[in-house]
Amino acid sequence: MPLTFHHHQLPNGLDIVAEENPDSHSTALGLFVKTGSRDETPAINGVSHFLEHMMFKGSDRYTWEDVNRIFDEIGARYNAFTSQELTAYYANVLPEFTERAMEHLSHLLRPAIRQKDFDTEKKVILEEIAMYLDDPGHRLYERAMEEYYKGHPLAMSILGPAQTIRDLERDAMVDYFQSRYGPGNMVLSATGRIDFGQIVDLAEKYCGGWKRVNARRDGDAPAGRPGDFQMSDAKLNRQYTVGLTPGPSAQDERRFAARVLSDVIGDGEGSRFYWTLVDNAIAEDADFAFYPADGVGTFALSLVTDPTRSAEARVIALAELDRVRSDLNDAEVERAKNKIGSSIVLQGESPLGRMRNIGSQWIYNREYRSLGQDMATLMSITPDSLRALMNDFPFDPMTLVTLGPPEAGSDTAEPAPDPGQA
Amino acid sequence: MPERFLVETLPSGLTLLGEKMAGVQSAGMTLLTPAGGASDPLGASGSATVLSDLVLRGAGSRNSRELTDYLDSLGLQRSSSVGTHHTRFGCAALARRVIEALPTYADILRRPHLPADGFEAARDLSLQSIAGIQDDPRHTVLIRLREAHFPPPFGRNTMGKAEDLEKLTLEACRADCAERYTPRGSILAIAGDIEFGELRDAVASAFAGWEGATERIVKPGPISPHRVHEHYESEQTHIGLAWPAIEETDPEYYTLRLALEVLSGGMSGRLFTEIREKRGLVYNVSAGYSSLKDIGAIFGYAGTSNDRAQATLDTFIDEVHRLAEGISQAELDRAKTGLKAATIMQGESSSARAGAIAYDYFIRGRIRGLEEIKAAIDAVTLDRVNAWLKNNPPGPFTIVTVGPNELKMPQA
User: Fold this and answer.
1) Would you put residue A183 in left (φ > 0), alpha (ψ -120 to 50) or beta?
2) Mean pLDDT of B337-351
3) Most A CBs within 10 Å: which of B77, B117, B130, B283, as the mutation test of the A interface?
4) A341–B75 CB contact, under 8 Å
5) Would you call B344 and A120 a contact, using CB atoms and an 8 Å cutoff?
């Protein structure tokens, strides 16, 4: 595949990373900022995500109506997302709209944050929080993060508690913006059909005046705590279980092996969880996923079952995590590698997918990895790499949380006694 | 210029579609067989969904585990689903791996083992999915909306009804498989880095001698608007709104599609602007065209706090009615740009292309190139949209709500 990598740093410190693919039909541009709920204090929890919404409310030059109209005028596929550690803004356009997309993204990231817009958007954020409260999987995940990372900023939710959002003032958001949104803490990622010289010129023209920031992040890597927590809700039909346990971080070389291992254990089809839990209908869903993060990482077990079968499913899942350490076989590792290999090929054919990948890689590691490097690393992984990984990360301790109707599972009152604090 | 598309109907009735794509190494496959929710046997709703799981539990010379392991060893990104008209099997990987998998997909359709223990598990999983939907009010409202709006059996939830699934037997499923996993009405579409000669040979050999019953074609009855409220102690009230629309083969299809882009295209769409941006009533609001064979509809959704649900529903309906007053040239221009860009960018994904050509063939009996679609979009003028909107006011509405309180329903 004729992909060429480029990197350039503007005099103000803005990093530009790009991967040129002349076969693409489109161009993808994204601005990635190393900031998220992890960088907040409890008093302003949710500000990163709320701020992401406010970026679409206009700059000194544009109103919110202009912002939405201009993106639609150029036929862009555009959006933004906020995670615990990263906030990104992006647009996928036809190549002839590259300059307008760049100009527009640059306006997006210099928001006016007008009081009236702030007040209206606060209502939208509160609706988004309410929407997630109607999603048991999301409620459970938030609680699991809260317990696993207790005492660390990663324990906070991305959206923030409704009351914190109601109390949040515009000035606190402006302060947060000024301390986090600048060169030195962000990267421009461009992929697809691009001319790198043009991208650099456009970045200089539209972002060259931005001031560098010295944003820091708490680098502590908290270890997970063992625990077993039950939540109940009378209106639910199903029992939901999440378990979090330590894994390698986004900087750790073992992350590639961790991705293979999570597929061997808990991919949607053909994995160990599939054969022991889903094939026989003990669980409707049984996954095991790997979530690398900045300086820290987790594996996440997730089960959805009939309430009467929750305890059984959990015993089987934990037994499988124990068993895989001694009876891992070559064929299952090879199959998982082949599936991941296909996803690498398919990602290379999507400018949007590549833009997100190289932008976040740069934020986490300040490095570029080509598809060829990713493929070579993947192919170098052996069953022994996975065994070594499981020695380093033996799925212990584990923070388990369940949510379901009250009569199900254990009769322990909520919240359950916390062995982590015993 | 070498041919870009391949369209061929095999003697068995199976249609083979191909699209050659430049600059990709992958291929995507969509395989449709005419076992959809609408043609589930009477009293056996959900049969196609159970079958879509059961046929993967061993086929040809491989048992369940061998079959899954083999497909995984090819590195296929796989999916399967059941829609109103078809069961769909999809996969994507390096192109040669997809071609290599074709004999196995032929086994899945033609020689599934349909084992007894697998049947119990597949049925159990279907019953669990139905129970799980009740925990997800956003999903519930969309299912109820289709059920209420589309005439039966088109609006059926393809997962089926629990009472039907409980009665379903392995024998009935086997008979259903023999009848509906049939070459007539099946479509195999592959897009990506492929050679048509090689594809033809692979398909001819894998599907040689496949015979089957004639496709069971189900026609929709007339649409009748309904009002449904389902009580649920949720944080938000989930609102579903539907109204009838022309079919996709109608000459005014792109006139309607562009008007819908104005209503709910990008973030400058009217629903988003009026309901979310100006009033902050919702996080999610949208409306879009939904097409089945011989019938079209528009489905909308909004999720909002219970005390603001009435205002949201009223504003939603006002905005839909306001379309009849016409749209502006600037709105039409944005809609055209958006629709064309989306069509071009979809051309980068082999999986998306395989799905698109299969769908195009099913609805229209042929594949359209990008130029034809662009020309159809460009041919729509402002006068044409506005005249059409004036003469075709939206309604009557089917409205479904899921939440703690019933809302006051509009007359229309």
Assistant:
1) beta
2) 91
3) B283
4) yes
5) no
| pLDDT at residue A407 is higher than 80 | no
Q: What angle do CA A204, A208, A209 make, to 5 degrees?
A: 155
* B87 close to B19: Cβ distance less than 8 angstroms: no
Q: Which of B26, B69, B305 sits opposite A127 (nearest CB)?
A: B305
**Which segments of A219-295 are extended strands (E)?**
227-232, 239-247, 285-293
Residues B316 and B301: their CA atoms lie apart, in Å, by 9
Nearest-angstrom CA–CA distance, B178 and B392: 44
Helix (H) or strand (E) holding B279: none
Residue ranges in B5-73 assigned as alpha helix (H): 47-54, 64-73
Distance from CA of B118 to the nearest CA of A (A): 8
DSSP character at residue A244: E
How many Å apart are CA A33 and CA A187, to the nearest integer? 7
pLDDT of residue B2: 64
Sign for the CA dihedral angle at B165, B170, B176, B177 comes to positive
Helix axes B137-149, B116-133, angle to 10 degrees: 100
Statement: residue A416 has pLDDT above 50: no
Of A194, A224, A221, nearest in space to A420 by CA? A224
C-beta atoms of A71 and B268 within 8 A? yes
B116 close to B56: Cβ distance less than 8 angstroms: no
Predicted confidence band at A1 (pLDDT cuts at 50, 70, 90)? Answer: low
Helix B116-133 × helix B170-180 angle, to 10°: 90
Give dist(CA A354, CA B218) in Å, integer: 43
pLDDT at B104: 98
- Answer whether A131 sits within 8 Å of B284, measured CB to CB: yes
CB pair distance less than 8 Å for A75 and B338: yes
Task: Provide φ and ψ at B291, rounded to 5°.
Answer: -115, 135
Q: Are residues A392 and A233 in contact, defined by beta-carbon separation less than 8 angstroms?
A: no
Taking an 8 Å cut-off on Cβ atoms, the answer to whether A238 and B350 are in contact is no
**Interface contact B370, partner A, CB < 8 A:** no
Q: What is the DSSP letter of B112?
A: B
> Cβ of B125 and A278 within 8 Å?
yes
Pairwise CB contact (< 8 Å): A335 & B278? no
CB neighbour list of residue A140: distance below 8 Å, 6 or more residues apart = A231, A240, A241, A242, A401, A402, A403
Asked if A292 contacts A255 with a C-beta cutoff of 8 angstroms, the reply is: yes
Residues in chain A within 8 Å Cβ distance of B68: 269-270, 274
CB count within 10 Å of CB A187 equals 24
Query: Taking CA atoms, what residue in A is nearest to B123?
Result: A281
- pLDDT tens sequence across B290-302: 988 889 999 999 9
B278 touches chain A (CB under 8 A): yes
Most A CBs within 10 Å, among B98, B127, B135, to test the A interface: B135
